[in-house]
Design goal:
mainly beta; 12 strands
Length: 179
């Protein structure tokens, strides 16, 4: 099977996928980076610090599912007690799909062991980015009702897609490698 990343209907081949599951302060966290190229552009999807409190060992990941809302609540079919507690931001690519500023949506990811710590992962996601809208003077305004006093988050972009990839899973904390 080919490794692919589809975002908003555009499918590209995955050239690199990293999945790290370090145990930090007694809690298993998930960090994911999927990288592809399309027409000499780098396309990258990064997710980080998704808490998996019910995963005691990486060896227990086979046939498990992460299924979580962007507000951190897990769906009933989530088998790992997932919670999104923070997201990574990678500004080194021409286009990065990450979850900084996401206000709504969901993420579902299934894991199937191929051999040892090599897994086939299938992820589906849909989220909406929000930001505060400003008027010409830099004052935050309501997108729908001009003159409304409180600042309001306004939808700026929707992202949805699917990724299918195989990768070795390790327990390295990728944040330890950053300086």
């Amino acid at each position: 099977m080919a490794d692919t990343l589809t975002i908003n209907g555009v499918t590209i081949p995955v050239v690199e996928a990293e999945l790290h599951l370090p145990l930090i302060r007694g809690t298993r966290l998930m960090y994911l980076r999927i990288k592809g190229y399309k027409e000499s552009r780098v396309i990258e999807l990064t997710l980080g610090e998704i808490e998996l409190p019910l995963l005691a060992s990486v060896d227990g990941l086979d046939r498990q599912r992460v299924h979580v809302r962007m507000n951190g609540e897990a769906y009933d079919d989530d088998t790992l007690g997932s919670d999104i507690i923070a997201m990574l931001n990678n500004d080194s690519t021409e286009w990065t799909c990450n979850m900084e500023g996401v206000g709504d949506g969901e993420l579902r990811m299934d894991f199937r062991r191929i051999e040892g710590r090599r897994y086939r992962c299938v992820m589906e996601f849909e989220w909406v980015y929000f930001e505060y809208e400003d008027d010409d003077d830099g004052n935050e305004i309501d997108c729908d009702r001009a003159g409304y006093e409180e600042p309001v988050l306004c939808e700026t972009e929707r992202a949805s897609g699917r990724a299918e990839f195989s990768t070795m899973i390790d327990e390295v904390n990728p944040l330890d490698e950053r300086d």
